[in-house]
Amino acid sequence: MIPLLVASPLLFAFIISLLPALGKEKLSKYLFLIGAFSPWLFISSIVQKLPLGEVVGGWERISGIEVMVDSYSLPFLVAELLLFTFVAVYVYGDYYPKKSENKVYGILLLLHSGLLGAFISRDLFNYYIYMEIASVSSFALVAISKEKGAKKAAFRYALFSLLASYIFILAIGIIYLKTGYLNLFLIKENLVFSKEINVALVLAFSSLILKSGVFPLHFWLPDAHSKADAPISALLSGLVVKAPAYGMILLILTFPISTLMQNILIITAFLSMFFGIAMALIQKNSERLLAYHTVSQMGYVLLGIGLLNPLAAAYYAMAHSLFKGGLFLSVGTIAEHYGTRDLEKLSYRHNKFLMVAIALLSLAIGGISPFIGAFGKFMLVKEIDGLLKYVFYAGGIGTLTSFIKLNYYLLKRGEKVPFPFKKEVVSLSVGLLTLITGIYFYPHLQLVRDLSFIFIGFVLFYILKKLGLFEFQLSPFFPDTGSKLGREINVYMLFLGAFLLFILFNSIH
Amino acid sequence: MKMSLIVRTTTKLVSPFLVTYSTYLMIYGHLSPGGGFQAGVILAVSIILLITSHGYKKVRKAFKFWEVQLIEGVSGVFLVSLGIISLLFGGFFFNFLRGGPFGSLLSGGIVPLFNIGVALKVGAAFTFMFYILLRWVERD
Amino acid sequence: MISAEFTGIIIMLIGMYALMTKENLIKLVLSINVVSIGLVLFFIGTGYIEGGDVPILPRSTVVDPLPATLMLTTLVVDVAITSLALALVLKIRREEE
Known about the structure:
The structure holds three protein chains of three kinds. Chain A is an all-alpha fold. Chain A has helices at 4-22, 28-37, 39-47, 74-91, 101-120, 124-144, 150-179, 184-189, 195-212, 221-226, 230-240, 243-254, 259-281, 286-306, 310-338, 352-366, 372-381, 387-410, 421-441, 447-467, 485-508; strands at 52-55, 66-69. Among the domains of chain A are: 1-122; 257-474, no CATH class. Chain A is built from 21 helices and two strands. A two-stranded antiparallel sheet of chain A has the order 1-2. The longest helix of chain A has 30 residues, at 150-179. Chain B has helices spanning 5-27, 36-54, 56-62, 65-85, 111-139. The longest helix of chain C has 31 residues, at 66-96. In chain C, 72% of the residues lie in helices and 0% in strands. Chains in contact: A-B, A-C, B-C. Chain A binds chain C through residues 125, 129, 132, 136, 139-140, 143, 151-152, 154-155, 158-159, 162-163, 165-166, 169-170, 173, 176-177, 482, 485-487, 489-490, 493-494, 497, and chain C through 5, 12, 16, 19-25, 28-29, 32, 35-36, 39, 42-43, 46, 67, 70, 73-74, 77-78, 80-81, 84-85, 88-89, 91-93, 95-96.
């Protein structure tokens, strides 16, 4: 019953790719909607029988592929189904022109089944294959966009993601050489610790850090996520960067992690949090601001993994999917209908729905109770104590400051542009969903702490505005010409090589 | 610029034998080296050989665009529905045709059917990819 | 005899060196293919047993057939991404003219 979650969108994707040969391209819209909603039929019968595991095909565990749904993978699955449903309703109908509509629907359904397959697998190679299906679909979706530098961003994303996948398979190969199994349950039973497995774990974690966009290896993320169309950016930032986080949770559930590696993960997580907020404060492009916030929030998920608390990381990942997806949908709608992404020209003053939606989502990402962001942060904070707790709260205040800046720019008066009703309703419902799920999980209200955070956020915002930080022009690192793309890739690859050597030498001695 | 007469005649003679070889690899994939992906690649090569020696437009008239797309779609649907149908007999992709003398063709169950589906899909996909990449180059 | 795992890692390092120094976009795509070939060689070397027999109706101990099967899947992924990257390079060049 569990593999049917993956098989039903795949079946509809193949039927959609069959239709142009028969001449019936008009039916592809309806098949896309059915294919996007079909996993909901199976999930209700699975949720009642948690934890549920089976081996595909009825074979033994030693010779089959195991899939499992339990309390670690359920937050990811629920977030994926909810966000994909809303994006499917957003894209349905008239978003893409009739010429390329068929192909986009097929690739979107392939992305759906790839992500679902990655989140239910408990076998190392099976997880890699489904993550690759999702990644290849997302390269194609980024390249379709009509922005100016989209194809170069897609090329850079493809090259780095592929190299990280090869390093991940090298780590799987070393683990297979030492233990002889690929199934995680059997590896945990027969594990004998040695130095080579330590090297394999370091390689696997570095490649998953590159694929999920945490600070030192984040260079592909701002371009790829900001130059894609609005619903595609919502899917990319919300779901595709969560699949490597699930892989890291699988690794820490199976192998014992040394204290040195835990410290490296925690330091990287804190650096990523503050780097993302600092770069977001000086951005003028609305979608690049949200992409740098993805870098910062993935630092929170890595912090949960570094503290060996996989349940907190899973719930924070679910929270981040919901509010980042909603933010990209609403801000992207405004940007596309005004025709520009520059923050100074956008405004939401004439659309009450979008104003309420963006206000709700900004409160959610800042960690104000009773939204779902507060639940995620509450589960993470339980294990930190001492000085690190104040650093953690400072990150929350920084996020609030940056979103006060976003709302300040959007409140200015602009010209009135009519929005389609459907897009406003979708954005508002994602905003309300963060409130409802927050109340469901964590029905406490901490007014004093949250109001003081908002107050400190406003104070910081006025200080930075007086200092003139927002007029600071950051001239881009490399000019946007094609002959320099090779040189850019060389520099980033040197950086990646230096990072790998540094981490490997530190963990062998 | 056309290739010489010897090249064009030889590829026309060799190409059907490549299709035979790929069919053998497809069907006996569970008893000897071979299998779905390898058979599909050779099936695609037998058409690409004709493209490089005769030119793209002539081969497009013989193996039309929509025919290749139809083969690819139908074999994809066949593969996934094979898995879903075997759900009625046990698990997903449960081998319900198992049994038969050891070393013969029927002992694999649904494995030869799976190999045929994969080979047709891979062959059609590679041919399709070549059609699309050559369509851009020919326009230059 | 030279072991296959060691050779595989050296070929991967050669591929990564080419990624760091070459500027032409098609050479970058080809060096990713070199990295993947080194990886396949490393993986197949992990299954080798001294004096092992072919795993079809064997008579004595066999060479492990699982890494070869996994590497088929990896090759398929590599071919798909190479073709997508080459199509992207064509479109980038066309956009500049």
